[in-house]
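Format notes (please read before filing issues)

Several people have asked whether sequences and structure tokens are stored in separate files. They are not. Every record keeps both together, in the order shown below: the sequence lines, then the token lines. Line labels are part of the format and must not be stripped during preprocessing.
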Amino acid sequence: WTGDALYVYFEKKDANTMDVINGLMKKLGLPRSAFGIAGLKDKQAVTRQRITIYKSHLDKLGGEEVFLAALAGYGTIIEKTYHPTPLQVGQNAWNRFVIHLRAVKKIDDTIKEQIAKYLAPIQQYGFPNCFGTQRFGKGMRNFHRAKEIIEWTSDINSAFELKFKLQAYGSGWFNTYALDRYRKNKRLLDGDIV
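Then the structure lines:
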């Protein structure tokens, strides 16, 4: 690949995407607009994702090595390449999750049976692919902030923040309707299911 945007695929643990972005902004003195991401990853997990930055920002920093060293403070860099355009929120069409159940040997048989009982309907019906708390922020603040914007009771100056808050608002309503439909009749539509 060639292009003006450096794509870096990296793995992190105990840090969500915005922890990384905010840390890089502070450490490198760059604005939020310098970084491209396609979505947010949880803090309480081992996650892999891509982040992009334009060559023009790398040149101001003194080269890609400075950026890569700062990013390496948050995890392991797996791969890097250049691409014509940076990542944008919502660009990815899918996500993949692998859940590891640890300390299984220490769980007694009664609890294992309870876990199996809860997993049986999930294996049969799947489960709604709802948005998690990282989308809404602590205390649903992103959702409530979007509601204020929609109701014209609050102003917003950043186009990125506006887009993100409105996505949080739509995601909240998606969760409400998908979960309600699932609870009533176990009915999932294309796009609902994991």
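For reference, the curators noted about this record: DSSP finds seven helices and four strands in the chain. The beta strands are 5-13, 35-36, 46-54, 75-83.
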